[in-house]
Amino acid sequence: MFDFNLFLSALFGWPLAKGAMLTMVLSVLVMGVSLMLGMAFGSAAGSKNKLLRFFIGAYVWLFRGAPALLILLFVWNGLPQISPIFRAGWFTPFFAAFLALTLIQIAYLSEILRSAFNAVGKGQKEGAAALGLHNWQTFLLITLPQALRIAMPALVNEFISLLKATSLATVISLKELMTITQFAIATSFRFLEWYGAALVYYMAMVSVMTILQSRIERALSKGHR
Amino acid sequence: MIESFPSSDAQLPSAVELSDVNKSYGTFHVLHDVSLTVGQGERVVICGPSGSGKSTLIRCINRLETHQSGRIIVNSVELSDDSSKIDHVRRDVGMVFQHFNLFPHLTVLQNCTLAQRWVRKRPQSEAVDIAMAYLERVRIPEKAHRYPGELSGGQQQRVAIARALCMTPGIMLFDEPTSALDPEMVKEVLDTMVGLAEDGMTMICVTHEMGFARQVASEVVFMDDGRIIEKGAPDTLFGSPSHERTKRFLRNLLH
Ligand SMILES: Nc1ncnc2c1ncn2[C@@H]1O[C@H](COP(=O)(O)OP(=O)(O)OP(=O)(O)O)[C@@H](O)[C@H]1O
Ligand SMILES: [Mg+2]
């Protein structure tokens, strides 16, 4: 019933490995870019500028509210209808998935980081200012490291959700892990073996993240008991 | 390693000069026409009831708060929105907070070297030497590689003093440095401050430690409702205050 040899060759075969790599690369790129922009958004959400705060609030409202699938399809099918720029060769499924997921991820990360920045006490900024540190130095050296420690579990959660959300890109035929799995099933009709192999890949990636998380948390929690 | 502090000298301009300073939080008027002159090497103690504006006053001196009118001149530099003036003043003024405000993610030594590196641009080895010298001075060098969270309150406050001294300020501000401490730790912090005073540091301290004020203060200032009600030598102000509000405050303090 369960062809163990097929399962093994699916697991160690090139197609799934390549799909998993693509999933991983896409997730890391999306996470990296949205972490940067999420920091900017998250700290701007606490700014005195009302217009800026309104813009960020509206952005978060939109991209947290809209279903990921809708945004993905909108970017892939809708943008080319808006402008011929998006009909050019560089606008690949990979790029569309990257764009759509980054837009969504920024919304979630900026919320997490906003509250983490707020959780770093006012006294920290005052202590730094009294020593003559400038705002950007205070942000990089004092606020950010403490905020990242606070936000780390939530950020890793978001990364794990993202890793799985990349499978939605199967609807725009990005050749990530799930798409490859379904291709293979369409020709072989072997569900158990291929789903099983794909599951192993996802679990392996998530496990690596969990191990990394505890390492990073330990490094960042120095001095905190 | 520890430089000597400027000694008092009639020729030198005042360390801190406030004239007719007014400050509001929104519509709430906190400081009313506050004027105060602190000479080089003087030690001024500010006391007064909670909410009277003591913290606000000393926080205006290093521009943690902005004032709306009047002048604040620190070592001949007048504070304004000009950020280079603010930088200049903050180089000259160290501050110690009620709740220490140490950086919990950095070791004691890193707390003491960070601003030396980034603000004073001192090389790491020099910054470490200076930090160790001041940690020794506050008698806590053995904790250099600990994190603030591993220290007692009194030890943390002494580190905070060392951290400020590492920037070799000419003026030190203290905002109730002992009021968050358990009674048995108050003395170790006060002793450190007395030592600083004896070395001629210009100090402005918000504190209700009368013993300390009597021992080191050149002047005691009593504030209420955002105004300076009276000031004078510690023995005069504590012994025979001239205002009813001061008397009432001192009576409450003793009980
Ligand atoms: N950021 C702020 N916004 C609005 N009002 C403030 C702010 N900080 C202080 N105040 C108010 O200003 C007044 C003076 O406050 P301040 O902290 O200077 O008093 P204080 O004399 O230091 O009191 P305490 O002995 O309790 O520390 C208080 O009524 C306080 O509520
Ligand atoms: Mg106060």
Topology, element by element:
The complex is a heterodimer of chains A (225) and B (255).
Chain A: H1 4-12, H2 14-44, H3 50-65, H4 68-82, H5 93-119, H6 122-130, H7 135-165, H8 177-188, H9 191-220
Helix pairs in contact in A: 1-9, 2-5, 2-8, 2-9, 3-5, 4-5, 5-7, 6-7, 7-9, 8-9
Chain B: E1 16-25, E2 28-38, E3 43-47, H1 54-61, E4 69-74, E5 77-78, H2 83-92, E6 93-96, H3 108-118, H4 124-137, H5 153-165, E7 171-175, H6 183-198, E8 202-206, H7 210-216, E9 219-224, E10 227-232, H8 234-239, H9 244-254
Parallel strand pairs in B: 3-8, 3-9, 6-7, 7-8
Antiparallel strand pairs in B: 1-2, 1-4, 4-5, 9-10
Helix pairs in contact in B: 3-4, 3-5, 4-5, 5-6
Bound molecules: adenosine-5'-triphosphate (ATP) and magnesium ion (MG).
Adenosine-5'-triphosphate (ATP) is lined by residues 25, 28, 30, 48, 50-56 of chain B.
Transmembrane segments (chain A): 20-42, 54-76, 88-109, 194-212
GO molecular function, one term (chain A): transmembrane transporter activity
Keywords (chain A): Amino-acid transport, Cell membrane, Membrane, Transmembrane, Transmembrane helix, Transport
